[in-house]
Amino acid sequence: MNKTLYKTNQNHPQIKEYKEAVEKGEQNYHVLPRGNEWIVKRAGASKPSQVFGTQSEAAVYATSVSQNQGTVLFIHGADGRIVDRKDY
Asked: How many helices (H) and strands (E) does the chain have?
Protein backbone atom coordinates (compact mmCIF):
# COMPACT_ATOMS: atom_id res chain seq x y z
CA MET A 1 0.00 0.00 0.00
CA ASN A 2 1.42 3.36 -0.99
CA LYS A 3 1.01 6.20 1.44
CA THR A 4 0.45 9.67 0.10
CA LEU A 5 2.65 12.14 1.90
CA TYR A 6 1.45 15.71 2.12
CA LYS A 7 3.84 18.54 2.56
CA THR A 8 2.52 20.52 5.49
CA ASN A 9 3.42 23.75 7.17
CA GLN A 10 4.50 22.57 10.63
CA ASN A 11 3.92 26.09 11.98
CA HIS A 12 0.26 26.16 10.94
CA PRO A 13 -1.92 26.68 14.06
CA GLN A 14 -4.12 23.62 13.38
CA ILE A 15 -1.10 21.37 12.95
CA LYS A 16 0.50 22.70 16.14
CA GLU A 17 -2.75 22.14 18.08
CA TYR A 18 -3.06 18.61 16.72
CA LYS A 19 0.53 17.70 17.62
CA GLU A 20 0.09 19.10 21.14
CA ALA A 21 -3.13 17.14 21.62
CA VAL A 22 -1.46 13.88 20.55
CA GLU A 23 1.48 14.53 22.88
CA LYS A 24 -0.95 15.10 25.78
CA GLY A 25 -2.68 11.81 25.00
CA GLU A 26 -6.03 13.36 24.11
CA GLN A 27 -8.33 10.95 22.32
CA ASN A 28 -9.40 13.02 19.35
CA TYR A 29 -11.37 11.59 16.43
CA HIS A 30 -10.79 12.06 12.72
CA VAL A 31 -12.95 11.63 9.62
CA LEU A 32 -10.49 10.55 6.92
CA PRO A 33 -10.67 9.49 3.27
CA ARG A 34 -9.56 5.94 2.43
CA GLY A 35 -9.93 5.05 -1.22
CA ASN A 36 -13.63 5.36 -2.05
CA GLU A 37 -14.58 5.17 1.63
CA TRP A 38 -14.53 7.45 4.64
CA ILE A 39 -13.30 6.24 7.99
CA VAL A 40 -13.68 7.43 11.55
CA LYS A 41 -10.51 6.87 13.50
CA ARG A 42 -9.37 7.76 17.00
CA ALA A 43 -5.99 9.49 17.06
CA GLY A 44 -3.27 6.93 17.65
CA ALA A 45 -5.46 3.92 16.82
CA SER A 46 -4.21 1.44 14.26
CA LYS A 47 -7.67 0.56 12.92
CA PRO A 48 -10.72 2.70 12.13
CA SER A 49 -13.72 2.73 14.47
CA GLN A 50 -16.17 2.68 11.57
CA VAL A 51 -16.17 2.78 7.76
CA PHE A 52 -18.74 4.72 5.68
CA GLY A 53 -19.55 5.33 2.05
CA THR A 54 -19.71 9.12 2.35
CA GLN A 55 -17.97 11.85 4.30
CA SER A 56 -21.29 13.16 5.65
CA GLU A 57 -22.26 9.75 7.10
CA ALA A 58 -18.86 9.48 8.76
CA ALA A 59 -19.12 13.03 10.11
CA VAL A 60 -22.53 12.37 11.68
CA TYR A 61 -21.23 9.26 13.45
CA ALA A 62 -17.98 10.95 14.53
CA THR A 63 -19.87 13.98 15.84
CA SER A 64 -22.01 11.74 18.03
CA VAL A 65 -18.99 9.87 19.41
CA SER A 66 -17.02 13.08 20.00
CA GLN A 67 -19.94 14.75 21.78
CA ASN A 68 -20.45 11.71 24.05
CA GLN A 69 -16.76 11.56 24.96
CA GLY A 70 -16.07 15.30 25.08
CA THR A 71 -13.27 15.15 22.53
CA VAL A 72 -12.16 17.16 19.52
CA LEU A 73 -13.25 16.11 16.04
CA PHE A 74 -11.12 16.79 12.96
CA ILE A 75 -12.81 16.43 9.58
CA HIS A 76 -10.45 15.99 6.66
CA GLY A 77 -11.13 16.68 3.01
CA ALA A 78 -10.60 14.31 0.10
CA ASP A 79 -6.96 15.47 -0.10
CA GLY A 80 -6.37 14.53 3.56
CA ARG A 81 -6.05 18.07 4.86
CA ILE A 82 -8.08 19.25 7.84
CA VAL A 83 -11.10 21.25 6.67
CA ASP A 84 -13.04 21.51 9.94
CA ARG A 85 -12.48 21.18 13.68
CA LYS A 86 -15.20 20.80 16.29
CA ASP A 87 -14.55 20.93 20.03
CA TYR A 88 -16.94 19.08 22.33
From this structure: 2, 5
CA 46 from chain centre, in angstroms, equals 13
DSSP strand pairing (29-34 vs 72-76): parallel
How many other CB atoms sit within 10 Å of the CB of residue 33?
16
Report CA-CA distances (Å) from 38 to 12, 16, 17, 31, 34. Answer: 25, 24, 23, 7, 6
The CA distance from 43 to 73, in Å, is: 10
pLDDT tens for 31-70 read 999 999 999 999 878 899 999 999 999 999 999 999 998 9
The Cα–Cα gap between 36 and 44 comes to 22
